[in-house]
Amino acid sequence: MKYCAEGARGGAPLTLDALRGAMASGEILESRALSFDSGKRLHFRFEDADGIMPYEECADGVREGNVRDIALITRVGRPVCFMVTDISESGERPVATLSRTQAQRRCRTERLDRLVSGDILPCRVTHLERFGAFCDVGCGISALLPIDCMSVSRIQSPADRMQEGQDILCAVKCRDAQGRLVLTMKELLGTWQENAAAFSPGETVVGVVRSVEPYGVFIELAPNLAGLAETSEGLCPGQLVSVYIKSILPEKMKIKLVVLHVLPGERFAFPLEYRQSEGHIGFWRYSVPGAARTIETCFDSPTAPDPLEAAEPDEERS
After folding, report:
1. Quick one: which H or E segment has residue 20?
2. Between 113 and 268, where is the model more confident?
3. Which one, of 138, 127, 68, lies nearest residue 100 by Cα?
4. Could you say which architecture CATH assigns to the domain 16-110?
5. Cβ contacts of 42 within 8 Å, gap of 6 or more
6. Residue 268 above 90 pLDDT?
7. Given this structure, which CATH class describes domain 114-188+274-317?
8. Superfamily of domain 192-263
9. What is the mean pLDDT of residues 263-281?
Protein backbone atom coordinates (compact mmCIF):
# COMPACT_ATOMS: atom_id res chain seq x y z
CA MET A 1 0.00 0.00 0.00
CA LYS A 2 3.00 2.31 0.38
CA TYR A 3 3.07 3.38 -3.26
CA CYS A 4 -0.40 2.34 -4.39
CA ALA A 5 -2.60 4.29 -6.80
CA GLU A 6 -4.47 7.29 -5.50
CA GLY A 7 -7.85 6.22 -4.17
CA ALA A 8 -6.68 2.74 -3.18
CA ARG A 9 -5.74 3.52 0.41
CA GLY A 10 -9.08 4.43 1.93
CA GLY A 11 -9.06 4.24 5.70
CA ALA A 12 -10.45 6.29 8.57
CA PRO A 13 -10.44 10.12 8.64
CA LEU A 14 -7.04 11.55 9.48
CA THR A 15 -6.50 13.04 12.92
CA LEU A 16 -3.92 15.57 14.04
CA ASP A 17 -2.03 12.80 15.80
CA ALA A 18 -1.97 10.78 12.58
CA LEU A 19 -0.61 13.79 10.69
CA ARG A 20 2.09 14.31 13.33
CA GLY A 21 3.07 10.67 13.17
CA ALA A 22 3.25 10.71 9.37
CA MET A 23 5.44 13.82 9.40
CA ALA A 24 7.85 12.13 11.81
CA SER A 25 7.97 8.82 9.94
CA GLY A 26 7.73 10.06 6.36
CA GLU A 27 4.59 8.00 5.74
CA ILE A 28 2.55 8.75 2.62
CA LEU A 29 -1.07 9.58 3.39
CA GLU A 30 -4.14 10.29 1.28
CA SER A 31 -7.19 12.53 1.52
CA ARG A 32 -9.76 14.11 -0.78
CA ALA A 33 -8.93 17.59 -2.12
CA LEU A 34 -11.81 19.99 -1.46
CA SER A 35 -10.80 23.12 -3.39
CA PHE A 36 -8.16 24.82 -5.55
CA ASP A 37 -7.92 28.50 -4.64
CA SER A 38 -6.88 31.59 -6.63
CA GLY A 39 -3.40 31.20 -5.19
CA LYS A 40 -3.21 27.79 -6.89
CA ARG A 41 -3.20 25.81 -3.65
CA LEU A 42 -5.13 22.62 -2.94
CA HIS A 43 -7.10 22.57 0.31
CA PHE A 44 -7.98 19.64 2.57
CA ARG A 45 -9.94 19.25 5.79
CA PHE A 46 -9.09 16.60 8.34
CA GLU A 47 -10.85 15.53 11.51
CA ASP A 48 -9.23 18.16 13.75
CA ALA A 49 -6.93 20.05 11.36
CA ASP A 50 -6.80 21.65 7.91
CA GLY A 51 -4.38 20.97 5.11
CA ILE A 52 -2.83 23.21 2.46
CA MET A 53 -0.80 22.02 -0.51
CA PRO A 54 1.25 24.86 -2.07
CA TYR A 55 1.25 25.12 -5.86
CA GLU A 56 4.73 23.70 -6.42
CA GLU A 57 3.93 20.78 -4.13
CA CYS A 58 0.81 19.71 -6.05
CA ALA A 59 2.66 17.43 -8.49
CA ASP A 60 6.16 16.46 -9.50
CA GLY A 61 6.98 18.58 -12.55
CA VAL A 62 5.07 21.73 -11.56
CA ARG A 63 8.28 23.60 -10.74
CA GLU A 64 9.72 22.72 -14.14
CA GLY A 65 6.56 23.75 -15.98
CA ASN A 66 5.77 20.19 -17.08
CA VAL A 67 2.33 20.04 -15.47
CA ARG A 68 -0.55 22.27 -16.54
CA ASP A 69 -2.91 23.88 -14.05
CA ILE A 70 -5.83 21.83 -15.38
CA ALA A 71 -4.08 18.74 -14.02
CA LEU A 72 -4.25 20.25 -10.54
CA ILE A 73 -7.77 21.64 -10.84
CA THR A 74 -9.05 18.17 -11.77
CA ARG A 75 -7.72 16.81 -8.47
CA VAL A 76 -10.53 18.64 -6.64
CA GLY A 77 -13.01 16.09 -5.33
CA ARG A 78 -10.55 13.24 -5.81
CA PRO A 79 -8.21 11.40 -3.44
CA VAL A 80 -4.70 12.89 -3.41
CA CYS A 81 -1.60 11.34 -1.86
CA PHE A 82 0.89 13.47 0.07
CA MET A 83 3.59 13.70 2.68
CA VAL A 84 3.25 16.06 5.64
CA THR A 85 6.11 18.59 5.67
CA ASP A 86 5.00 20.94 8.45
CA ILE A 87 2.24 21.49 11.00
CA SER A 88 1.38 24.92 12.36
CA GLU A 89 -0.68 24.98 15.57
CA SER A 90 -0.71 28.72 16.16
CA GLY A 91 -4.24 29.33 14.85
CA GLU A 92 -7.71 28.23 15.86
CA ARG A 93 -7.26 24.97 13.91
CA PRO A 94 -3.91 23.37 13.21
CA VAL A 95 -2.81 23.63 9.56
CA ALA A 96 -0.68 20.94 7.92
CA THR A 97 1.50 21.75 4.91
CA LEU A 98 1.36 18.91 2.41
CA SER A 99 3.45 17.80 -0.56
CA ARG A 100 2.30 15.50 -3.33
CA THR A 101 5.53 16.32 -5.15
CA GLN A 102 7.64 14.67 -2.45
CA ALA A 103 5.40 11.61 -2.38
CA GLN A 104 5.66 11.18 -6.14
CA ARG A 105 9.43 11.65 -6.20
CA ARG A 106 9.82 9.09 -3.48
CA CYS A 107 7.57 6.67 -5.37
CA ARG A 108 9.69 7.09 -8.51
CA THR A 109 13.01 6.68 -6.70
CA GLU A 110 12.12 3.81 -4.42
CA ARG A 111 9.79 1.85 -6.69
CA LEU A 112 9.12 2.87 -10.29
CA ASP A 113 12.74 3.57 -11.29
CA ARG A 114 13.66 0.08 -10.14
CA LEU A 115 11.13 -1.68 -12.35
CA VAL A 116 12.33 -3.45 -15.50
CA SER A 117 10.50 -4.80 -18.53
CA GLY A 118 8.40 -7.77 -17.51
CA ASP A 119 7.82 -6.70 -13.91
CA ILE A 120 4.16 -7.04 -12.91
CA LEU A 121 2.46 -4.27 -10.96
CA PRO A 122 -1.04 -3.27 -9.87
CA CYS A 123 -2.44 -0.04 -11.26
CA ARG A 124 -5.72 1.84 -11.56
CA VAL A 125 -7.33 3.06 -14.79
CA THR A 126 -7.73 6.84 -14.58
CA HIS A 127 -8.63 7.92 -18.12
CA LEU A 128 -9.54 6.31 -21.43
CA GLU A 129 -8.49 7.62 -24.84
CA ARG A 130 -9.01 6.07 -28.27
CA PHE A 131 -5.34 4.93 -28.34
CA GLY A 132 -5.20 3.43 -24.83
CA ALA A 133 -5.74 3.83 -21.12
CA PHE A 134 -3.83 6.01 -18.72
CA CYS A 135 -3.14 4.19 -15.47
CA ASP A 136 -2.02 5.35 -12.04
CA VAL A 137 1.02 3.23 -11.20
CA GLY A 138 1.54 4.80 -7.80
CA CYS A 139 0.91 8.13 -6.02
CA GLY A 140 -0.86 9.60 -9.03
CA ILE A 141 1.99 8.92 -11.48
CA SER A 142 0.60 8.06 -14.90
CA ALA A 143 1.61 5.39 -17.42
CA LEU A 144 0.06 4.44 -20.75
CA LEU A 145 -1.46 1.07 -21.57
CA PRO A 146 -1.78 1.12 -25.38
CA ILE A 147 -4.94 -0.39 -26.85
CA ASP A 148 -3.04 -3.08 -28.75
CA CYS A 149 -1.45 -4.25 -25.49
CA MET A 150 -4.76 -4.85 -23.71
CA SER A 151 -5.43 -8.27 -25.21
CA VAL A 152 -4.69 -10.53 -28.14
CA SER A 153 -8.32 -10.21 -29.19
CA ARG A 154 -8.56 -6.86 -30.97
CA ILE A 155 -10.95 -4.22 -29.69
CA GLN A 156 -12.18 -0.96 -31.17
CA SER A 157 -12.04 1.04 -27.95
CA PRO A 158 -10.36 0.67 -24.55
CA ALA A 159 -13.88 0.90 -23.10
CA ASP A 160 -14.49 -2.55 -24.61
CA ARG A 161 -11.97 -3.97 -22.16
CA MET A 162 -11.99 -1.76 -19.03
CA GLN A 163 -13.47 1.29 -17.36
CA GLU A 164 -12.21 4.30 -15.45
CA GLY A 165 -11.52 3.58 -11.80
CA GLN A 166 -10.94 -0.14 -12.42
CA ASP A 167 -8.00 -1.82 -10.68
CA ILE A 168 -6.00 -3.96 -13.09
CA LEU A 169 -2.67 -5.75 -13.33
CA CYS A 170 -0.10 -4.90 -15.98
CA ALA A 171 3.48 -5.70 -16.86
CA VAL A 172 6.10 -3.12 -17.74
CA LYS A 173 6.53 -3.20 -21.52
CA CYS A 174 9.24 -0.58 -21.87
CA ARG A 175 10.03 3.06 -21.16
CA ASP A 176 9.41 5.89 -23.59
CA ALA A 177 11.97 8.52 -24.62
CA GLN A 178 11.26 10.49 -21.42
CA GLY A 179 11.68 7.44 -19.20
CA ARG A 180 7.96 7.02 -18.51
CA LEU A 181 6.53 3.54 -18.13
CA VAL A 182 4.60 1.94 -20.98
CA LEU A 183 2.42 -0.97 -19.90
CA THR A 184 1.04 -4.19 -21.36
CA MET A 185 -1.60 -6.60 -20.11
CA LYS A 186 -2.18 -9.25 -22.77
CA GLU A 187 0.76 -11.37 -21.59
CA LEU A 188 -0.97 -11.88 -18.24
CA LEU A 189 -4.24 -13.14 -19.72
CA GLY A 190 -3.07 -16.56 -20.87
CA THR A 191 -1.91 -18.35 -24.00
CA TRP A 192 -4.15 -19.64 -26.79
CA GLN A 193 -3.98 -23.13 -25.32
CA GLU A 194 -4.77 -21.99 -21.78
CA ASN A 195 -7.81 -20.05 -22.94
CA ALA A 196 -9.07 -22.65 -25.41
CA ALA A 197 -8.92 -25.36 -22.71
CA ALA A 198 -12.01 -23.80 -21.12
CA PHE A 199 -14.14 -24.65 -24.18
CA SER A 200 -15.23 -27.83 -25.99
CA PRO A 201 -16.82 -28.55 -29.37
CA GLY A 202 -20.58 -28.87 -29.08
CA GLU A 203 -20.93 -26.19 -26.40
CA THR A 204 -23.04 -23.06 -26.75
CA VAL A 205 -21.51 -20.00 -25.12
CA VAL A 206 -21.72 -16.22 -25.18
CA GLY A 207 -19.35 -14.13 -27.27
CA VAL A 208 -18.78 -10.56 -28.33
CA VAL A 209 -18.50 -9.58 -31.99
CA ARG A 210 -15.14 -7.87 -32.46
CA SER A 211 -14.82 -7.44 -36.23
CA VAL A 212 -16.77 -8.21 -39.36
CA GLU A 213 -14.67 -9.20 -42.35
CA PRO A 214 -15.65 -10.29 -45.89
CA TYR A 215 -14.58 -13.85 -45.06
CA GLY A 216 -16.23 -14.10 -41.62
CA VAL A 217 -16.95 -12.61 -38.22
CA PHE A 218 -14.42 -12.66 -35.38
CA ILE A 219 -16.14 -13.33 -32.06
CA GLU A 220 -14.36 -12.98 -28.74
CA LEU A 221 -14.81 -15.84 -26.27
CA ALA A 222 -12.29 -14.46 -23.76
CA PRO A 223 -9.99 -11.42 -23.80
CA ASN A 224 -7.19 -13.52 -25.32
CA LEU A 225 -9.30 -15.83 -27.47
CA ALA A 226 -11.51 -15.36 -30.51
CA GLY A 227 -13.21 -17.68 -32.98
CA LEU A 228 -14.45 -17.23 -36.52
CA ALA A 229 -18.05 -17.57 -37.66
CA GLU A 230 -19.54 -17.26 -41.12
CA THR A 231 -20.75 -13.80 -42.05
CA SER A 232 -24.31 -13.08 -40.88
CA GLU A 233 -26.33 -10.09 -41.91
CA GLY A 234 -26.79 -7.42 -39.26
CA LEU A 235 -23.80 -8.28 -37.09
CA CYS A 236 -21.59 -5.40 -35.95
CA PRO A 237 -18.72 -4.96 -33.47
CA GLY A 238 -19.70 -4.85 -29.82
CA GLN A 239 -22.80 -7.03 -30.12
CA LEU A 240 -23.35 -9.80 -27.61
CA VAL A 241 -24.20 -13.12 -29.26
CA SER A 242 -24.69 -16.75 -28.41
CA VAL A 243 -22.54 -19.09 -30.48
CA TYR A 244 -22.25 -22.81 -31.05
CA ILE A 245 -18.67 -24.15 -31.01
CA LYS A 246 -18.40 -26.25 -34.15
CA SER A 247 -14.75 -27.26 -33.84
CA ILE A 248 -11.46 -26.39 -32.11
CA LEU A 249 -8.26 -26.82 -34.13
CA PRO A 250 -5.25 -26.34 -31.81
CA GLU A 251 -2.63 -26.93 -34.53
CA LYS A 252 -4.07 -23.98 -36.47
CA MET A 253 -5.14 -21.96 -33.41
CA LYS A 254 -8.65 -21.77 -34.85
CA ILE A 255 -12.10 -22.08 -33.36
CA LYS A 256 -15.03 -22.40 -35.76
CA LEU A 257 -18.30 -20.93 -34.54
CA VAL A 258 -21.92 -20.69 -35.59
CA VAL A 259 -23.91 -17.64 -34.50
CA LEU A 260 -27.23 -18.71 -32.97
CA HIS A 261 -28.74 -15.54 -31.55
CA VAL A 262 -28.00 -11.85 -31.30
CA LEU A 263 -28.77 -10.29 -27.92
CA PRO A 264 -29.77 -6.77 -28.98
CA GLY A 265 -29.07 -3.80 -26.75
CA GLU A 266 -26.91 -5.76 -24.31
CA ARG A 267 -23.29 -4.81 -23.62
CA PHE A 268 -20.87 -7.22 -22.05
CA ALA A 269 -17.20 -7.29 -21.12
CA PHE A 270 -15.45 -10.50 -20.16
CA PRO A 271 -13.78 -10.40 -16.73
CA LEU A 272 -10.00 -10.17 -16.72
CA GLU A 273 -8.57 -13.49 -15.54
CA TYR A 274 -4.83 -13.27 -14.92
CA ARG A 275 -2.64 -16.34 -15.37
CA GLN A 276 0.19 -14.58 -13.54
CA SER A 277 -0.47 -11.87 -10.99
CA GLU A 278 2.88 -10.95 -9.47
CA GLY A 279 6.62 -11.12 -9.89
CA HIS A 280 8.33 -10.99 -13.28
CA ILE A 281 7.63 -12.48 -16.70
CA GLY A 282 10.66 -12.79 -18.97
CA PHE A 283 9.24 -14.51 -22.03
CA TRP A 284 5.68 -15.25 -23.15
CA ARG A 285 4.49 -17.23 -26.16
CA TYR A 286 0.81 -17.09 -27.04
CA SER A 287 1.06 -19.51 -29.97
CA VAL A 288 0.81 -23.27 -29.63
CA PRO A 289 3.97 -25.31 -30.35
CA GLY A 290 4.52 -25.75 -34.08
CA ALA A 291 1.95 -23.17 -35.10
CA ALA A 292 2.58 -21.38 -38.41
CA ARG A 293 1.88 -18.04 -36.77
CA THR A 294 4.05 -17.03 -33.82
CA ILE A 295 2.82 -14.50 -31.27
CA GLU A 296 5.28 -13.92 -28.44
CA THR A 297 6.87 -11.28 -26.24
CA CYS A 298 10.46 -11.24 -25.03
CA PHE A 299 10.64 -8.76 -22.16
CA ASP A 300 14.34 -9.25 -21.66
CA SER A 301 15.14 -7.42 -24.92
CA PRO A 302 12.12 -5.23 -25.75
CA THR A 303 12.21 -3.02 -28.79
CA ALA A 304 9.29 -0.68 -29.18
CA PRO A 305 8.60 2.75 -30.64
CA ASP A 306 7.46 5.53 -28.38
CA PRO A 307 3.64 5.15 -28.23
CA LEU A 308 3.33 8.39 -26.30
CA GLU A 309 4.11 10.41 -29.40
CA ALA A 310 0.33 10.72 -29.80
CA ALA A 311 -1.33 13.84 -28.50
CA GLU A 312 -2.60 12.93 -25.05
CA PRO A 313 -4.04 15.29 -22.45
CA ASP A 314 -1.35 16.98 -20.36
CA GLU A 315 -3.44 16.47 -17.24
CA GLU A 316 -2.81 12.74 -17.46
CA ARG A 317 0.91 13.23 -16.97
CA SER A 318 0.65 14.52 -13.42
Report:
1. helix 16-25
2. 113
3. 138
4. Beta Barrel (2.40)
5. 33, 35, 36, 52, 53, 58, 72, 75, 76, 80, 98
6. no
7. mainly beta
8. Nucleic acid-binding proteins (2.40.50.140)
9. 89
